[in-house]
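Re-running the complex after MR caught last week's input typo. The corrected sequence lines follow. Everything else is unchanged.
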Amino acid sequence: MNEYFTPGDFLVLKPVILLVLFGMGVMLTDLLLEKHNKYFNAVTALVGVGFASVAMWMIQSQMNRDGAGVYEAFRGAIVLDSFSIFFTWIFLISTAITIIISIRYLEIEEENHGEHYAIILFATAGMILLATGMDLITLFVSLELMVISIYILTGFLKRDRRSNEAALKYLLLGAFSSGILAYGMSLLYGISNSTNLVEIQSKLAQRPAGDPLVMMAVVTLAAGLFFKIGAVPFHQWLPDVYEGAPHPTTAFMSVGPKAAAFALFLRIFMVPLGPVRDQWLPLLIGVSIATMTLGNLAAISQSNIKRLLGYSAISHVGYLMLGLVSGNDTGLKGISIYLLVYAFMNLGAFTVIVAMRRRDLIGDEIDDMAGLMYKSPTAAVLMVIFLLSLAGIPPTAGFLGKYFIFLSLLETGHYTLAVIAVLYVAVALYYYFRIVSVMFMREPIDKELPSMSPGIRVALGVTAAMTLIIGIYPNPFIEFANRTVLAVMR
Amino acid sequence: MPLQLPAAFQPYFWPTIFILIIILVFPLVAGYIVLLERKVMADIQVRLGPMRVGPHGLLQPIADAVKLLIKEDIIPANADKWVFWLAPVISVTAAFVSFSVIPFSDKFYITDVNIGLLFITAVSSVGILGIILGGWSSNSHYPLLGALRSAAQLVSYEVALGFALIGGLMVASTLSMQGIVKAQLDAGMWFVFYQPVACFIYVVAALAETNRAPFDMPEAESEIVAGYHTEYSGFRFSLYFLAEYSNIVVVSAIAVTLFFGGWLRPFPNVQALDFLRYTPIIAMIVLAGLSFMGAGRESRPPEKIGMAGLGIVCLMLAGLFAMPAVLTWIQGLFWFSLKVALCIYGFIWVRFTFPRYRYDQLMNIGWHWLIPLAIANVIVTGIVMVLKGS
Amino acid sequence: MNVLPGFFFYLLSAIILGGAILTITRRNAVHSAIWLIVTLLGVAGIYLNQHAEFLAAVQVLVYIGGIMVLFLFVIMLVNLDEAAKQRQFNHQWTIAVGCALALMAELAYFIVKGRESFRFGDTGTGTLNPDAAVIEFLKSCRDIPGLGPGGFLQPNTELIACALYRDYLLPFEIASVLLLVAIVGAVVMAKKEI
Amino acid sequence: MPEVTTAHYIFLSTALFTIGTIGVLTRRNVVIILMSIELILNAVNINLVAFSKQLLSINGQAFAVFIIVDAAAEAAVGLGIIIALFRNKETINADEIDLMKW
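Corrected-run output:
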């Protein structure tokens, strides 16, 4: 069978293979570990992420040396271009940070099993494949690998009812949406007699305008993808799952899987559905307005901080979709930058929440943060930075993402949309500021300090630094994002 | 063709005849397997076994069948009647459907599809539903426990069974049952010699799949009364019974087909052993001789006559087989039945030789030993095949 | 001969849809499961009707012999007699049925209107998608009896093997990781103490 | 009897898809919701096999195999979660899974 696969095919997948191998390794070494040194699992998993990063780096530099813009493998099922490389880095970083912030949390919850880290690694492998996949079947299977891993991570605190319920809700709605997505994919296959996205694109371009079968495919695919990224009206699962999941898992899935789902979203809408852009554009505009509206307005009345950030995540999805609405270079660049920045600031904010989990306190109510300024000034100040960045205030990084997206809207003449989006930024400032005021103005309700383990310190340092660096010195990152755009537009 | 059928139905003529033969004859065969089991059990326990009905108890199965059919049919209070009725039907249907692809000989088979073995595996996994639903619908504790145990056991051992079959399939490189037999003809070797480990795993897993001792947990009388069919009686019970014995025949038939050369005679490629084709005649003559000897030893006249009659029937069969056309036709069927009968004898022998395993031991054997061994066997087979291929 | 596939299609459709409707309306979860099994068997029949034998066998083996047994197991573990006596449908059922009917109408409209979109341009010419190389490869493995009558995808099992181990080797490997995750996850979730 | 075309199969799958959707949206018993999801996945498979036959391409059937794999994985994890939930709270009603607002 050598004519079909070369070793090069597998070399392109080296990061994924390493992640899967380390995932299995974690489960095996877990059997040898005593109860008190389970943290070693996290070390193994981190080493795995490190190896995967090195492998990714080597592939990338190889690619630069070759001058090849793109590596194809497995007969076009996998395409490693700067788009997927960009997303792979987001995934690897968010995975590493999730691993280091989970250690103390799982110890407190007494659920520190090796399987947690193994499943995180498997989910990461699924995410990387999702960003690199160019084939319907590959995309579907890796999507399922990712989401099924996250169902399990969501329900990992199985003695906690909230965790169970969140996992069940997520699974039911997730499986439902996967079914809808698969239906759309089956129609795409039927229309084009191919599972390769690029071939589908060329076949779809030949269909007559307003072909009902294509329209049906667009509707079902869009519905499935809206579920996955959490856009209105398919967002109901998101706040519940964010609230019920263990804190580190919430941090993880608000970043990595969300970016992966968005990568899938971009790939599907840009590549196979590219030729029928005029069919889905009105749908997308409506959904993005609804998403921003609901996300921002519902966030105002929340008392649970994870829920609040969940609604804020919904509103961010609304902004991100605007980049696709404008659909030009600037918009896509905006999406890439936004997702990169979002990874850091959101992980940072959730890391602070993870630190709030103490022996007898779940720490996810806004009131639990009362007087954080007096107990742990560092955490409080960093939280302010993250929240400012989420709101999109310069000089933090969050500004950059919003800037490019709004710019793209102006460039393509969507002035009304731009005005609406800017207005909602003001609303967002209001509810983010509520958290700040609780941290600074209110007296502490108890004396117990946040559990600032070394892992959490590192995570906070990295995320805060990156949030500021990208905001102040954005050029290299914009450059990186530019190449991404070229890849996806080709 | 005896009567002129429309062309559209021509392909369905012989299969329909074969289906009718199997459906009509098999219950009788199952009855005689039960008799065989009781006789072997008696022999192992140094008793005589059933002797009253007919000579040497040869009519016992018919008496049993009549008893089961005229028994009162009890449905437990608060049972889910609909499901209670359905469950044994599922079991027996699943068991019978498997016969549709079993190659009794090169001429006597209902159909030969290119997914034959997979089809049998699939259909027999449906049979589990009959057990679960039967246990559940009885609305009683023992059946429910028995059903859950049974289902867990069947599902667990199905994995090992599947992997063992894959080992054999890799050598045969076809799923068609006739194709597997022909592959052995081409190889000039029974696949048991290529795949001894797979054969061993298959036999162990098949014992568990058919709920036979030493894995007869689902119906361990000393622990859970009679398992999933505790509440069943009369005709419904006999359906379960029929399903169980047809499953035994099916798994034996698969073992024979996949590992022991199916309907091929021993050493099919050795010309010097061609005289083996006369074995059916010789076997019938030997049987006739045994019957006549038995008739001589009987004391009561009716039984004397019965045995003698049996001997005469055997002689007539021998004469029939002596016709060349019939002999060719009967070849495969004879060898296949002989091998299956030996296999069933082995099953019965095991039952009365080994003690029953405890439930946790049983699960341990399945998960800790059989499945890893089966997977290792598949991997080793694959490696060897790749090395040989290149 | 030409009548039979059509007849089976309508028969199986009736079985599938009837079974599906009964699945979602039965009070007792076990009855639902039984009707679902009927539906799944009907779907397996549809596969057979389209000469996808391998898929039919896999459908029976995995769905009915595996997934449905699992379902029945769990229903029996968690089945509460009260559950069957309670209200079976939630409050938004009118809205939901309305939505679903609208969806159905919409899809039906699309299909009826889009009749011509089912005239697939690049097919029906009798050229088989499994390119000549595949057929050569198959023949090199073993003698195969050509491609079946009427241009059906035969030999089905071998062609699927080709697709799975060549064209879709990567998803096949990913699916193995997916199943590993599912096994680990099911054990983590269902076991009291890991 | 008119000839059965691919459109017939698509219509069957659409109907099955709709029935599954109604099941997911209206039932309270989470096990039955999971079963409805299986109905949806079967609708997808009917589509795929019909297209596969129409296009004379085996890829659709390969896709269907992956959908079945996915259905198995989802069912296993889902039923595991249901058991975990049942252990903490003796219910399998979707409406009683209400610790967080829907």
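None of the earlier attempt is carried over here. The two ends of chain D are 49 Å apart (CA to CA). Chains D and B do not touch (no CB pair under 8 Å).
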